[in-house]
């Protein structure tokens, strides 16, 4: 099918929505990107495209059923446009460390924050080891080019930078995770990534709004 028949519903602050955008860029595909402002409400288009979960990202390819879940979309893109560079769908080391990064921002008290930071640092140490095992001393988890694991992990780098800024700390550094720090620089400067990676200042402002809402909701719940 013509690439003009490809639409992607996403939201610019979402690391999950970034994943299929990177995959589409790796395949050099033209597509229509529909940015959802979820904090203002969900559009009718999104509700029609993903009526069960009502979440982004959603890929629409011609007249086929919409495809949901970020890594499933990445695998679909890899298989549907197999003539482009392979993204290699293999994820033995995937860890749910984005929730841990997020927990640093909403932690109440120094002890809770220390525990959240320790959890993130543990996840990064595992990724440092995973990078050595997967990359075989090459530039990316996928080898010479960005692959599935690079997309899965790299989509969270924007929020990791925001977390570092908010808490005046360095989670990715040459001292503790040298290979991962170098990989992060290569990933974010890659042609398929640099134009879809959110600006850190813009993401930080959005993050302040989200944290304020979470804390306000928590305070309101404690009053009941």
From TrEMBL:
Pfam family of the protein (one): GST_C_2
Reactions that this protein is recorded to catalyse: RX + glutathione = an S-substituted glutathione + a halide anion + H(+)
EC number: 2.5.1.18
Keyword Transmembrane helix part of the UniProt annotation: no
InterPro entries per UniProt: Glutathione-S-Trfase_C-like (IPR010987), Glutathione-S-Trfase_C_sf (IPR036282), Glutathione_S-Trfase (IPR040079), Glutathione_S-Trfase_N (IPR004045), GST_C_Tau (IPR045074), Omega/Tau-like (IPR045073), Thioredoxin-like_sf (IPR036249)
Keyword Cytoplasm applies: yes
Localization in the cell: Cytoplasm, Cytosol
Assigned keywords, A-Z: Cytoplasm, Detoxification, Transferase
Major place of residence: cytoplasm
Domain GST C-terminal: 71-206
Reported function: Is involved in the conjugation of reduced glutathione to a wide number of exogenous and endogenous hydrophobic electrophiles.
Membership in a protein family: Belongs to the GST superfamily. Tau family.
Protein name according to UniProt: Glutathione S-transferase
């Amino acid at each position: 099918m013509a690439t003009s028949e490809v639409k992607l519903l996403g939201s610019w602050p979402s690391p999950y929505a970034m994943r299929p955008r990177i995959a589409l860029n790796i395949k050099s595909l033209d597509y229509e990107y529909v940015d959802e402002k979820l904090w203002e409400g969900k559009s009718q288009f999104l509700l029609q495209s993903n009526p069960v979960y009502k979440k982004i990202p959603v890929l629409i390819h011609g007249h086929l059923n919409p495809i949901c879940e970020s890594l499933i979309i990445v695998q679909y893109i890899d298989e549907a446009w197999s003539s482009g560079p392979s993204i290699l769908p293999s994820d033995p080391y995937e860890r749910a460390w984005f929730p841990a990064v997020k927990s640093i921002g909403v932690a109440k008290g120094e002890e809770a924050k220390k525990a959240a930071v320790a959890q993130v640092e543990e996840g990064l140490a595992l990724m440092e080891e995973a990078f050595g095992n997967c990359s075989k001393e090459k530039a990316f988890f996928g080898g010479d080019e960005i692959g599935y694991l690079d997309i899965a992990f790299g989509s969270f780098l924007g929020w990791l930078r925001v977390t570092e800024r908010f808490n005046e700390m360095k989670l990715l550094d040459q001292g503790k995770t040298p290979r991962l720090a170098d990989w992060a620089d290569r990933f974010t400067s890659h042609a398929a990534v640099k134009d879809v990676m959110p600006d850190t200042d813009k993401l930080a402002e959005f993050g302040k709004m989200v944290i304020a809402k979470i804390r306000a909701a928590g305070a309101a719940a404690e009053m009941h």
